[in-house]
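2024-03-11 09:14:02 DEBUG pipeline.ingest accepted 1 chain
2024-03-11 09:14:02 DEBUG pipeline.ingest length=228
2024-03-11 09:14:03 DEBUG pipeline.predict start
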Amino acid sequence: MINLMAFWMDIYFMDSNSPTMDYMIMFHDFSMSILFTILIFLVLMMMVGLKMSILDLNLMENQFIELIWTVLPMFLLVFIAFPSLRLLYLMEEMFYPDLSVKVMGYQWYWSYDYPDFELEFDSYLEDKLEFDSGFRLLEVNDLLYVPVNCMVRFLVSSVDVIHSWTIPVFGVKTDAIPGRLNQLNLYSYRPGLYFGQCSEICGINHSFMPICLGVMEMEDFLDEVDYY
């Protein structure tokens, strides 16, 4: 079963649908393995020390011990930093996108623009009284569509206050800042319908800025664009 949405009592990431999310999950597991190793080592040291009473209450100075607890954490941080920086640059790198989409944040809705197709529309939260089934606070009146297996560049900004355009299953989260243009790339493995929300407190209706992204085959995407 592919977990592409968050469910009650979930304690781990949703199943990835992009290379970015794959790398983020791997980096998370890599970092947590180091942290758990350190934790287990410290717990064992405490247990052995308490059980065997290996305590020296008169120890005032030990250059060797101080060197170890200074140098070892430094090497561990560097060991974690290198893959972190590499992942950061991979997330920001953009290689000849197949499609560009402009995203503008408003209080409290999103506006999307396809420069390649001269198509622009606003996406509002769907009134819960207007549909019988669906996901509460996630349904929108107009969906954003992108083709599957294509590199899509998103240019994100805002008109009024700071927003944040976020879809967890793709591992994308970019601040929409007035007067500034932020860029992110998105590559999807599988077609489907994916949800996100504004992740920056932007006012009284912050909770009512859903993001609904439909990923489809290229032929269906072109038909959808022509329909508009």
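2024-03-11 09:14:41 DEBUG pipeline.report Strands lie at 99-106, 109-114, 119-123, 144-147, 152-158, 163-167, 172-176, 182-186, 192-197, 210-216.
2024-03-11 09:14:41 DEBUG pipeline.predict end
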